[in-house]
Amino acid sequence: MSGRDFSLPDHLPNHRGGEPASPDELPRQRNGITPQMHGRYPNHDVLDERDHWDGVTRRVVLERVDQGPPIRFFTAGEAVTLGVFCDLVMAQDREPRVPVLNMVDAKLFDGKLDGYRYAEMPDDRETWRQVASGLDSSARQHGDHDFASAPAHIQHQVVDAFSRGELRGVVWDSLPCARAWAVVMRAVLSEFYSHPWAWNEIGFGGPAYPRGYARLGAGQRESWEGSPATDSDPVRERPSP
Amino acid sequence: MSTLHSLRTLARGALRPPENDSAFLLDVHRRAVPTERMARYDPSYEVDLVIVGAGAGGGVLAQRLARRGWKVVVLDAGPFWDPDKDWVSDEAGSHGLYWTEERIIGGKDPVELGKNNSGRGVGGSMVHYAGYCPRFHPSDFDVFSRDGVGEDWPLGYGDLKAEYERLELELPVSGDHWPWGDPHRYPHTPHPIAGGAEFAREGARRLGIEMRVGPVGITNGAFGNRPHCIYRGFCLQGCKVNAKASPLVTHLPDAIEHGAEIRADCMVASIELDEGGSRGPARVRGVHYFDRDGSRVLQRAAAVAVAGYSIETPRLLLNSISKRFPHGLANGNDQVGRCVMVQGAPQVAGRFPMELRMYKAPPPEISSEQFYETDETRGFARGFSIQTVGPLPIGWAEHVLAAGHWGGALREYMRDYNHWYTLGALCELLPHPDNRITVAVDCLDRHGLPVARMDYAQSENDRKNIAFAKQTMRDIFAAAEAQDMLEIDRYAHLVGGCRMGSDPERSVIDSDHRAWELDNLFIADGSVMPTQGSANPALTIMALASRLAGRLAGKQVSGAGRRGLTRAR
Predict the structure, then answer these.
(1) B88/chain A closest Cα distance in angstroms
(2) Into how many domains does chain B fold?
(3) Residue B307 maps to which CATH number?
(4) Cβ contact (<8 Å) for B234 and A209?
(5) What is the pLDDT of residue A228?
């Protein structure tokens, strides 16, 4: 484990020409689960605190962890394409994965939408289906492959153009690309960062009712909040006299 | 310091608001509003007033008039929340707090709705607002005369000052002595602030920008049976503690105690015109609603007050079609839905060496109104305020995405969450008649009612204002020696759409909130505002409703050629 100093911002993409430091430089998560087991807070498992949460919150959060809802809204073909897409945009390149697409599928299946629709866009459910076919058609512009089976650099290129609203072609001529990106990413991020595994990864303290938070100052944490992996170097930093 | 000052300081936090016992009527052992003794009116009985919407406007209006002996029924499309059972300390689990039925957004700069700015259920949007409760400035009420933009109000700051003072005791509001606008103090002392706010305040101080703590409608100390805030940070997900003010805990318990009925899960479909009188001003005789079983019911009333906020209020009027009002009730001059406004609400986040954990403490901590009024050197009219926001993980992810990151870069910024702190501006965007709520007749909701469509575009002045506000926030973080910054463009709040005015050709209601074309139809929510300042609107919506209630109860509402309000008693 390298002694990374998180008081410095040098791991952040803006300081590295857009490329983040590799998460593999972080230790492996030791307590609980994070997506891909990246351990920025290796001993912090927010689920250890479940007994301190109020009952309704505990039920809502634990259902999210325990249930991997089946795919019911998307077709098998759509699910393959969109599964690869969700893995790419959340950089989930190995297990354990937050089952983002299954969570999105459940929400769309239940018709839980967000309360607004752009005038030039279809319903969010239809947008998702069109994005699936749009990703495939964009991948085929680069060769014989659908999006899911295309080489990694093509997939990356397509997603990058999608993120900049620059995809053109069959589907995209009638579906505004930038708006579609906003619709799908809003859903992906809402699901991924609703999952306690993601909270473990970012060091979020999680639900705090009825207990509350008491230590609000810079550099302070509650006794039960996780400390970062490498914010002190025991060799360099000697105990003060 | 005077003796008066010392006495006031001594009494801070211990002052009991006059004529509102809500905080004392709540139960000590549970958070739900006690409704065991609530009145139930038969819909065929003509009540004195039916109010559509139990939010900031409707809640205050109901409490005030119930206290004065009016028989009041409040209908709300959403549930009567029980904070213990219905609310969670969880972002995604709070989806039900928002208006999630379909709405269409269009125009050059569409405004995203949903969780950002829509409410549902008893308590309205104040259930999930951050808690900021600033007053408007005196300059807000004559913007056109001062700056040649926007619109003048048909009333002035002096008409609302006493209402502001009364409401600040009722919520109660906590904060530093307030130096901006009409300088004033707050009944509760300022809350402690978290580490991130300390950095931001220091950055601002180095630039000569003053930031003060508050003002927030969050108890600092016990208040009746409402406990002290526990700094859990989930203000935007509904306060399970009952520490944060919303009409659900600040006004409706007292309204119920004085005979008002809050009828939840009732979606009002249309306002019923009294077809009897074809001559003279038109009158309404009640509202049609769908009850929780989906049955259509007519609640009769001597007067109707609509308080459904800037989208549902115009929608209800536009969906209330009659021979006399073929284009919507009170819409003879084609003003309903026009001049709807949002505030520009860009956010800038700064990165610091220490862990700040911005999820702790209420997101509203400190604010500055130093840039509120016009400064010609800035190159645009009117201004903005600067506040703090504490995005939780999903909100923070949207922040990172807006900066153009996805995949590994997004994950890395997310892993760095605990080192960031976030400032947000509220920019006064100007009213424009083409920014408008209409109804989409080809798109119906589950009751068969046409849904609302909101079209919005910014003006050149608006763009300059937002750009200047963002630069100011970047400057503050730079002065605070932030190591990295991320920014996001967004909107906040909704007001206007049924504005008050002194000219029926340019407004929907008069200064007494009465529709120009109807004798007994009132509007009592944020939709009445001609301009919006750069203050969060909640307190002013409440103050307007409080003033209206005083005028109705005091029989001061009269007009040339109009019959007085008849009260069924």
Answers:
(1) 5
(2) 1
(3) 3.50.50.60
(4) yes
(5) 85
